[in-house]
Amino acid sequence: MIQKPKTESVLDEIHRVRREISDRFHGDIAAIAADANMRAIASGRPIWNPSDNKPMHLSDGENAPELDSQLPPSGDR
Q: How far apart are CA 32 and CA 44, in angstroms?
């Protein structure tokens, strides 16, 4: 079976899907975000929580001590 070349570019498809989602929620961004959050929770997949994030640098600009011991020498990067 010969397939016809796609006439819709990836960017056009992204814009089309965004319009469809916006239309479904009548442009209500809060409703879109709430729906996305409910679907993410229902998926059962782990969700990144920024409060669990460890700083890479101390507030005085120095590297965190535990990070320094894990980095290879700068010439190996």
A: 19
